[in-house]
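I wish you would study the pair of lines that follows with an eye to the fold:

===
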Amino acid sequence: MVSLTVNGQAHEIDASPDTPLLYVLRDELGLHGAKYGCGLGQCGACTVMVGGEAVLSCVVPLVALEGKAVTTVEGLGTIEAPGPMQAAFIEEQAAQCGYCIPGMMMRAQALLQREPAASEAAIKAHMAPNLCRCGTHMRILAAIKRAGAAMRTAATTGSRAG
């Protein structure tokens, strides 16, 4: 058994210690935001946050996560009340096929939690591991900038910033 917290909820996972986190999220916990893309940690479709850092869940074994906090795209908000990152991606219409978008949001969230006023160059460098075949990169970049602005505003007004 491995203990971990996913989106604020504690779980005891009874799976092989070498099971990739992605499989646990999707198959055991029913969280389907993180996607299986390459299975090799090369595309970013499976990106989630562990302890505030972006990680590729297809290559992280369950045993490495004992007692750690995992956040998936489902933990950023809801359909009724999307978080700033989700709202920005919706407002900028950043998705075309949408397959890469949860991973993009999670990698961007990790950056903006550390550096809400990240420069465009910093955003581009940070997002490089995540691939989008549809070519919505400019809308994704605009969404990340919008989310950063919303997070900064929320921080100064004391409202929830995701």
